[in-house]
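My main concern about presentation is that the manuscript never shows what a single data entry looks like. An entry of this sort, consisting of the sequence and the corresponding backbone structure tokens, reads as follows:
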Amino acid sequence: NPNKEVYNRDSKKYVEIVKYTETFRIKPKVEGNGRISLQDSFVRFGGSAVIEVIPAAGSRIDSVVTSRGEILNSENGLFKIENVTDVVGVTAYFSNATGVETYESDKLRISPNPTTGEIRVENKENSDYEILDMQGKPQSHGRIEDGVLDVGGLPSGEYMLKIENYIFIFYKK
């Protein structure tokens, strides 16, 4: 039927067919000095969302991570979440553009950043960790002993440190 109606034998009437499309919300969260701009906070089932992440003056974007555990990559400051099939949280992590930093959360603290060889980890001693390059390729993993990670063997560059559900970006000089 070109009018998208179907005949109901019980009521002896034509009934319009309505297609239901499920939509999901994108929930932004910011850690540090910056903001997230969404073109649309709702996405259709299986669809994509484009997110603009904007650091404040003197800050830089460290990482953008979804509640599904995906680390999003940027294309000119835009980040894309694909195949949305549920509510998705997205967190943008920002840090100071220069200087030595300490990352803190409610349960974890790491310092210094940048580092030349060791990272101190507070409140997560004796936890498992993984270090990845910025393409997501594993570089090192193990267990944090005495609150210190030895990263002296890594080449200079930018890395992701995963400890439990936390992801931090650090710089090795």
